[in-house]
Amino acid sequence: MVGNLVESTIGAVCRRYGLSHAAVNALAVIEGEGEPMLTGEVAARMHITSGTVTSLLDNLERKHYIVRSNDRDDRRRVLVDITPAAQALLDEVLPAIQQVARQLIDRIGTQRQQALLDILDEIRDAAAEIPDELPPPQPRQRPNQHTR
To answer: For residue 25, how many C-alpha atoms fall within 13 Å in the half-sphere facing its CB?
Structure first.
């Protein structure tokens, strides 16, 4: 619930600039690479499918925020880079997102922020340690059925 609320808040900031949160993330990922990158790598870094990233990049290309080109070493591979228009957009939208994020996180204070980061680190470590094969789960506990 909290995650959805934060996502909705950040998404509203992105929409003011005519983009989805995912589109802004894609532009930030590409810009962060510092050079053209493979479309598959954009998808991997965003944890989305190749079909989803293709649709996302198609929309960004229509808005002239990215350019695609073939990899010189392997013409089957497609590279993507951001345009100056996208960089100018990021110069506006990312500070606006950071401002909202600061408003959200500053309310809990420094000590609680650190506690939250520590908990998230523990969850990340626990997730990394989950084996690929788990034993069968416990049967589901159904809620009590109401009779009419």
So the answer is: 15
